[in-house]
Amino acid sequence: MSELREPCVPGLFTEEGGASLLGARCRSCGTPYFPAPSHCRNPSCAESALEPQAFGGGGTLWSYSVANFAPPAPHRFDEPFRPYVIGVVDLDQGLRVVGQMVGEAADMRVGARVDLVVAPIYHEDGKAFTSWKFELSRGSREHA
Ligand SMILES: [Zn+2]
């Protein structure tokens, strides 16, 4: 971990105290959000009462697809481009969120347990630029 790390986009996630997404939850209706919106978007919510909430820990892989093409600018990636997996994960804390998966498509399966992690997206000037990703939980890897 001597590698210098910097978030691709500041303010969206943290690695302190474990990887987590910096979102919000409505105190009135309980709806979780990431990223945090300016007000609650639940049409049947009587009162928008958003408060910051960090979402982390485990979840379940709801669906995934494989990107066989390099993402367009301004997105960056390490050369040579390698296909990567994009997952849709239901976090146990009640948030459905999209993120890049750590690992190969052949190891993925819908319903697998995953963990939120912060990992490099690309490297530049000796620095790793990070984002949130999902990694198959230990048990899911063994049974894949
Ligand atoms: Zn609400």
What is shown here, in short?
The protein contains 1 helix and 10 strands.
Helix/strand structural class: mainly beta
Number of domains: 1
The largest beta-sheet arranges its strands as: 6-7-8-10-9
Number of helices: 1
Write the H/E string, N to C: EEEEEEEEEEH
Radius of gyration: 16 Å
In whole angstroms, the N-to-C terminal distance is 28 Å
Q: Which percent band covers the strand fraction?
A: over 45%
- The CATH architecture term is Beta Barrel
Instruction: Give the total of beta strands.
Output: 10
- Chain-averaged pLDDT: 93
Bound molecules: zinc ion
Morphology: globular
CATH overall fold name:
OB fold (Dihydrolipoamide Acetyltransferase, E2P)
Largest sheet: 5 strands, mixed, barrel
Q: Which stretches are poorly predicted, pLDDT < 50 over at least 5 residues? A: none
Bin the helical content: under 10%
CATH domain class? Mainly Beta
Question: Can you walk through the features of this model?
Answer:
- The chain has 144 residues and is mainly beta.
- It has a single domain, classed as OB fold (Dihydrolipoamide Acetyltransferase, E2P) (Beta Barrel), CATH 2.40.50.
- 3% of the residues lie in helices and 48% in strands.
- It is built from one helix and ten strands; from the N terminus they run E-E-E-E-E-E-E-E-E-E-H.
- Strand 3 (20-26) and strand 4 (32-33) form a beta hairpin.
- The chain is globular, with a radius of gyration of 16 Å.
- The site of zinc ion has 8 residues, from loops.
